[in-house]
């Protein structure tokens, strides 16, 4: 599925194996603030291996003697990885001994805070990824990494957003058609997100194909780096082009919902055409009550580092904003294969 969307560069320069072991995909959350040190919520910095985030939350709830609803986190993390992330437990007036945790789950830090963690309350994630069994042009790959440092990559949603073999999209279609009336609120949110992400990726794919994903077009809506705030330029001038080149602003694509598109001209025509091609998703999202929002078409990895351990092993380190995917970076560098699971490291 993800391979159907075009890359910004020529074909990947190396072939590689990803996630040969969980330690080959390490993710650490970067928080935008420091917990207060007091309050009725106990924040736990957790290292986990071989567990998804929801399962880790269930285990922590049982260990602390609280209901699952009293455990919160900022972002979902992959099971097939080593991840360091924060959880909050609503524990007014008591601090339980959380010790009998299963292998693969460890408390690294505990601190009090006045509020619980909420989804999306992240500055970003820091990735350390090892690609093994690499074959291809090492020098050209290193040069491309340097290009990504400046130009960035297309900000595709990762394949896990759509479920195994696109199952979340099929369930979204069933939900919108009325065939699926299960009413599970959590699953409904997953299916809505899948449909919305698909429409965005389709728009982005067209912009990548015509080479405008990182350019400012007349009628574009520009989004501020690291923010959901956007604006519609009255005209493209040297100041805006400089800010675009510096990564301060990015062209954006639609997160579909009710309301009028803020884009104009041929940019709006493209976005409306994609919505018409996938009208079941577009109308379903509108009927579900979601509002039009925007997402950057590109993401620029920060503090990117690359080290060849040997001729066939490449380690990459980089940081990405919350809600973006490591696979968006990897697919621009390598044609990689994984074990029998999906993942991409967002949160």
Automatic annotation (TrEMBL):
Q: Molecular function terms in GO for this entry? A: RNA binding; tRNA pseudouridine(13) synthase activity
Which Pfam families would you find in this protein's record?
TruD
Q: Look up the EC number in the record and give it.
A: 5.4.99.27
Task: Return the PROSITE patterns for the record.
Answer: TRUD, UPF0024
What protein name applies here?
Answer: tRNA pseudouridine synthase D
Catalysed transformations (reactions): uridine(13) in tRNA = pseudouridine(13) in tRNA
Q: Which gene encodes it?
A: truD
Q: Where is the active site?
A: 78 (nucleophile)
Task: Please list the residue ranges annotated as the TRUD domain.
Answer: 152-299
The keyword Isomerase is annotated on this UniProt entry: yes
């Amino acid at each position: 599925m993800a391979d159907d969307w075009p890359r910004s560069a020529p074909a990947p320069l190396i072939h590689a194996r990803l996630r040969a072991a969980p330690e080959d995909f390490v993710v650490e959350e970067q928080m935008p603030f420091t917990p207060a040190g007091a309050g009725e919520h106990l924040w736990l910095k957790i290292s986990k291996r071989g567990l998804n985030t929801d399962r880790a939350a269930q285990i922590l709830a049982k260990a602390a003697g609280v209901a699952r609803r009293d455990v919160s986190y900022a972002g979902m993390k992959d099971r097939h990885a080593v991840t360091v992330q924060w959880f909050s437990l609503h524990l007014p007036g008591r601090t339980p001994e959380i010790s009998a945790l299963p292998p693969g789950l460890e408390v690294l830090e505990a601190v009090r805070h006045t509020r619980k963690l909420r989804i999306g309350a992240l500055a970003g994630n820091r990735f350390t990824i090892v690609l093994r069994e690499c074959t291809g042009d090492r020098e050209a790959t290193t040069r491309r990494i340097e290009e990504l440092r400046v130009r960035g990559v297309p900000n595709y949603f990762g394949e896990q957003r759509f479920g195994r073999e696109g199952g979340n999209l099929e369930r979204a279609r069933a939900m919108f058609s009325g065939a699926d009336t299960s009413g599970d609120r959590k699953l409904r949110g997953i299916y809505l997100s899948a449909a919305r992400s698909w429409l965005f990726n389709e728009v982005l794919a067209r912009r990548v194909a015509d080479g405008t994903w990182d350019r400012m077009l007349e009628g574009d809506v520009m989004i501020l780096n690291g923010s959901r705030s956007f604006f519609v330029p009255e005209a493209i001038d040297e100041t805006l082009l400089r800010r675009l080149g510096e990564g301060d602003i990015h062209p954006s694509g639609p997160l579909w919902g009710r309301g009028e598109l803020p884009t104009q001209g041929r940019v709006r025509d493209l976005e409306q055409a994609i919505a018409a091609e996938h009208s079941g998703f577009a109308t379903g999202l509108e009927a579900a009550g979601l509002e039009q929002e925007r997402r950057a078409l590109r993401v620029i990895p920060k503090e990117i580092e690359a080290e060849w351990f040997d001729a066939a092993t490449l380690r990459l380190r980089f940081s990405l904003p919350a809600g973006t995917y490591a696979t968006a970076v990897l697919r621009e560098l390598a044609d990689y294969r994984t074990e029998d699971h999906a993942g991409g490291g967002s949160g």
